[in-house]
């Protein structure tokens, strides 16, 4: 006998529909030892956890431990993929990369990190397994930390492909677990739980963007291999502590059955529209990061190390801004009211992104040769993230509520597919730069470099237009799920 997800009807010695009481049982329904240390079970009868269950101190204590472990692992796993962006100037010089090879390095991370995420999400949902989380952590840590040993472009991209497949594999199941466990761990619900989860990921990106250039320029690219050690340890810890934790609503089958065909089609249409909008916003994300490398190189045209460090710092500030923007949006945007605030954030973010070059160049002119020269650029890079990331945790939480039985798949569509599509950014950029490649664009006049930022800002406006087409009533109906 098989269950809906393709797994065995009996799992870990328990009949299907029965899970650990530490996850769901309210006081008075537990049985076993008074201390609660024994493995005890309770049938959840296809229902979601009640308010009393969420208030149970034992339930919340276990959930909090799991939730903060997930957050910490997200910080660590996101340290690694940003290496390819923050080290691109150094890698270009070391391996003598051609223009098409630079564009390929930018493109491969989102392609292989994102395109396979739906496959891993479907596997996760059908087999009711969490193995993709620790396995992805292991692959990403080992392969990406080894890029200093690459002797040529082909060895570099081999390590890149396997490594970012791993980090991409981690994300759908981790996001589904964060949304599900976070509803018990913290008081503000799924959207806030996911915002905190993604903020920890942004912290990892910021750390990676700063650490990688510093370590590589000071000790050599080969020394990055030491960073694999914490990733391997974390992979083992994830497998031991989270392999039996459910990642979907306990009553997801009942919720799925209660949604009629017409409503189901409307919800799928909304999710796919959000997916298309997120594809554009992730492209803005990668495009802005690529343009930051061009701008940094234009400030230090004769010093690879100085340009690498400046670019890494800009990416770090932008990444911190992404995390703060996600927290802000999740705090102020209420479930069921997401449509218009998201549209407004896209428009405001587009205005900020389009003016980065002007603000950065103004700071350099005013503070030339001083400590403050690049601070306007750092600050603007941080707030520009409002346009391409503030919407992400909000939209993913919305998608998980729209399709409660497909939280892993939804997470992969709204993250992974977007990342894969954003691989187009390095190839779109020359269109905005008058046909000049990213490698050589630093030699362009300032106004032409600014056009690269303006072009990607226009994609954020298109994303806002897509959000305008979503049925507001469908969003409101899913607000409590």
Structure in words:
The chain is mainly α and 481 residues long. It has 23 helices and four strands. Strand 1 and strand 2 form a beta hairpin.
Concise overview:
The chain is mainly alpha-helical.
Keywords summarizing the entry:
mainly alpha, 481 residues, two-stranded antiparallel ribbon
> Structural class per helix/strand content?
mainly alpha
CA-atom Rg in angstroms = 23 Å
Tell me about the largest β-sheet: 2 strands, antiparallel
Global shape: globular
Could you outline the blueprint of secondary structure elements for this entry?
Blueprint: E1 10-11, E2 14-15, E3 18-20, H1 21-24, E4 41-43, H2 51-55, H3 57-77, H4 83-86, H5 88-95, H6 99-114, H7 117-127, H8 132-144, H9 153-185, H10 190-219, H11 228-242, H12 252-258, H13 261-299, H14 304-332, H15 339-354, H16 356-366, H17 375-384, H18 386-389, H19 391-402, H20 407-421, H21 425-432, H22 446-468, H23 472-477
Antiparallel strand pairs: 1-2, 3-4
Helix pairs in contact: 3-9, 3-10, 3-11, 5-14, 6-9, 6-20, 7-9, 7-20, 8-9, 8-11, 9-10, 9-20, 10-14, 10-19, 13-14, 13-19, 13-20, 13-21, 13-22, 14-17, 14-19, 15-17, 15-22, 16-17, 16-22, 19-20, 21-22
């Amino acid at each position: 006998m098989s269950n809906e997800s393709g797994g065995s009807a009996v799992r870990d010695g328990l009949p299907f529909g029965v899970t650990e009481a530490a996850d769901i049982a309210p006081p008075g329904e537990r049985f076993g030892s008074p201390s609660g240390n024994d493995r005890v079970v309770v049938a959840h009868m296809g229902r979601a956890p009640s308010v009393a269950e969420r208030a149970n101190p034992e339930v919340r204590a276990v959930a909090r431990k799991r939730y903060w472990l997930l957050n910490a692992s997200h910080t660590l796993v996101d340290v690694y993929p940003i290496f390819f962006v923050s080290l691109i100037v150094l890698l270009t010089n070391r391996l003598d990369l051609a223009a098409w090879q630079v564009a390929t390095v930018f493109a491969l991370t989102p392609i292989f990190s994102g395109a396979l995420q739906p496959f891993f999400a479907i596997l996760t949902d059908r087999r009711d397994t969490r193995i993709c989380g620790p396995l992805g952590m292991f692959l990403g840590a080992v392969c990406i930390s080894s890029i200093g040993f690459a002797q040529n472009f082909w060895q570099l991209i081999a390590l890149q492909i396997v490594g970012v497949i791993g980090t991409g594999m981690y994300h759908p199941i981790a996001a589904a677990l964060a949304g599900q466990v976070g509803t018990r761990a913290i008081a503000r619900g799924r959207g806030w739980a996911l915002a905190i989860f993604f903020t920890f990921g942004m912290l990892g990106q910021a750390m990676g963007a700063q650490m990688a250039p510093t370590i590589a320029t000071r000790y050599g690219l080969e020394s990055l291999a030491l960073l694999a050690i914490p990733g391997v340890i974390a992979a083992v810890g994830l497998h031991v502590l989270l392999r039996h934790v459910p990642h979907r609503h306990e009553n997801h089958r009942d919720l799925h059955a209660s949604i009629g065909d017409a409503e189901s089609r409307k919800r799928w249409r909304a999710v796919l529209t959000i997916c298309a909008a997120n594809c554009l916003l992730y492209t803005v994300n990668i495009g802005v990061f690529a343009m930051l490398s061009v701008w940094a190189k234009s400030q230090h045209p004769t010093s690879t190390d100085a340009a690498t460090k400046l670019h890494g710092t800009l990416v770090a500030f932008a990444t911190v801004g992404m995390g703060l923007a996600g927290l802000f949006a999740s705090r102020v945007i209420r479930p069921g009211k997401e449509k218009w605030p998201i549209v407004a954030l896209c428009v405001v973010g587009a205005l900020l992104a389009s003016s980065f070059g002007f603000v950065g160049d103004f700071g350099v002119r005013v503070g030339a040769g001083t400590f403050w020269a690049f601070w306007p650029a750092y600050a603007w890079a941080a707030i520009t993230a409002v346009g391409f990331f503030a919407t992400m945790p909000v939209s993913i939480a919305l998608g998980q509520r729209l399709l409660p039985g497909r939280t892993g798949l939804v997470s992969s569509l709204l993250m992974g597919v977007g990342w894969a599509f954003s691989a187009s950014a390095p190839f779109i950029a020359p269109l905005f730069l008058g046909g000049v490649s990213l490698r050589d664009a630093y030699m362009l006049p300032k106004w032409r470099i600014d056009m690269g930022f303006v072009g990607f800002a226009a994609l954020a406006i298109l994303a806002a237009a897509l959000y305008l087409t979503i049925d507001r009533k469908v969003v409101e109906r899913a607000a409590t799920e």
